[in-house]
Amino acid sequence: MEKEAIAIPLQYKVDVLAALKEKGYNTNKIRTDGLLSQSTLQKFRNKQGVSWENLETLCGLLECQPADLIEYVPVQETGDEVP
Fold this sequence. Notes:
Radius of gyration: 14 Å
Oligomer: single chain
Number of strands: 2
């Protein structure tokens, strides 16, 4: 039985892993240095939400504000984005 995708109103504005790579952080370095866990990296790959702590770490690594990374996109009752 497949899980139904749940539409969440907070979405990433950037490709997080690509942004980290541009700053010189590949996934191996991130894991080796203990900056973020493998499960957190997987959540970024799947565009899933992460904890406040992980968001804080990400902002520190990318030298940015949370609003540079995420945005609120309202969803309709059907789960479709509002234009």
